[in-house]
Amino acid sequence: MIAPSTNNSAPAVQVEHLTVSYGPSPALLDISFQLEPGQLVGVIGPNGSGKSTLIKSILGIMKPDLGEVRLFGVPSEKARRSVAYVPQRGAVDWDFPVTVEQVVMMGRYGQIPWWAWGPSHEDRRHVDDALQTVRMEKFRHRQIGQLSGGQQQRVFMARALAQGADILLLDEPFAGVDAATERALLDVLDSTKRAGRTLIVVHHDLATAAEYFDSLLLIKQRLFAFGPPQQVLQPELLSEVYEGSLKAFEHLRNVANGGRS
Hints:
Layout: E1 13-22, E2 25-35, E3 40-44, H1 51-59, E4 66-71, E5 74-75, E6 83-86, H2 100-105, H3 121-133, H4 149-163, E7 167-171, H5 179-194, E8 198-202, H6 206-212, E9 215-220, E10 222-227, H7 229-232, H8 235-242, H9 253-256
Parallel strand pairs: 3-8, 3-9, 6-7, 7-8
Antiparallel strand pairs: 1-2, 1-4, 4-5, 9-10
Helix pairs in contact: 3-4, 4-5
Family: Belongs to the ABC transporter superfamily.
GO molecular function: ATP binding; ATP hydrolysis activity
Domain ABC transporter: 13-246
């Protein structure tokens, strides 16, 4: 595992009064929270709740109306090398003629000087380390479209790791994968967290959110709750945010009560 590159006492992610709108309607409204390094955080909320807008704001590609996002104390638009993004599988052209190794090397492009002939020995070492971390080194010469869904997710996780970023943003990495692959991805996320990196994961499955994450952000334009899963996964709160009946979230009562019936 490549060691984190940032040594800074500032929070890994600091969001202050973030407000972002598309036209007259706010996508995010006055959101504030901060994350210390080495956390695995899930972002939950209904469709259209602003989860993607939050990710774009942390990436520094979305200009807020009000407020700011800082990464290790630096405005996000000036700290893009500190953050890496793992997209949804549906956003990738899997027919593109590129190998696993080439995809992971893309994570190093920002580190290669324009005058260099190509990747250095150091760049190749980062790629090798990342492939080993996600257990995809045996597939390095395979075209990405020939991989299973879970393998494809692991390749893009390796690309993010090779980049050397201290903050990783993942957009629904567990969507469309089987249980064994989901567990393998969780192992990668856990080892990445233990290495000191901060991971923010958009997640849609409330039933597994308590098991997977240290903390949860529950958003629907504004921040409804942030904290440990047992604090956030309250049926009454979820019913308000998801506009569903309490019965739909009855199975979460044990989680909210610490496993007590």
